[in-house]
Task: structure prediction
Amino acid sequence: MKKKSLFLVIFFIFSGFGFSQNIAGAKSDPVLKAMVGELNRSYKKLKNAEKAPLYFLQYEVFDKTGYWVGSNLGAITSESDSASKSLTVDARVGSYEFDNSHEVKGKESRSRSANSKNIGSIQIPFSDESAIKTKIWELTDTAYKEALDKYLKVVMNKKVTAKEEDESGDFSLKKRSEAFYQRVESSKINKAKVKGIIKRLSAKFKKHDFIINSSVGFYAQTINKYIVNSEGSKVVMGNNYISIFLSLGARTKDGMDLSRSKDYNFDNFKDMPSEKKTFG
Result:
């Protein structure tokens, strides 16, 4: 299908100019402030910089933190913390009816990049608003130039190919200013307690001779997603994801290999299942 739509707000819609939740947090968030400030500046600068207008510009940031620990036969085998902030820029040149994302037809469509939907992504600083703005501008400049180049190619391609059966527009968007702020903080995890639990759980496999390999793992991740665009939407929402999983490989007396796994998922450390339930 040629027509595309943008999913801006997943759960909540708020009509107005302020944030529907945690206004203080929104005003002090360096990532959101940098995104809004740079989008306003870049869109104003680039909107009519060329004959083909930049009619839509959107920034998305995924802010992720994670903690992982694994155990085997009663011993910790791996442990790590992770954190990243990745930015993508969607720049659309032309109009809602026809833009740089238009499908290339004919011989030119054979190129792997001709109809690629990949959007470039870069890592951005964690809290320095000025440094974040610099990175945002770098990717905006790249995305805009690529959009212009692609737009010229699809315009030429349309002139030399047959009339399309599907004449719907390339992009659809409900023009409505939406604002929502519900950033979540990472669930507080007692790492010493977690390591003790998975060590005890993994040690339980020791007494079974038919088990040839096993592992127990704990993973906690927090994801906050930021969306800011030229239609006025400013959305921040997040969630915690916590998992415990057990896996084992066994061999029966007649030589048959078997494998089993089970996982438990929750979003708050206090909801972690008991050791008895986990191994039950």
In short: The chain has five helices and seven strands.
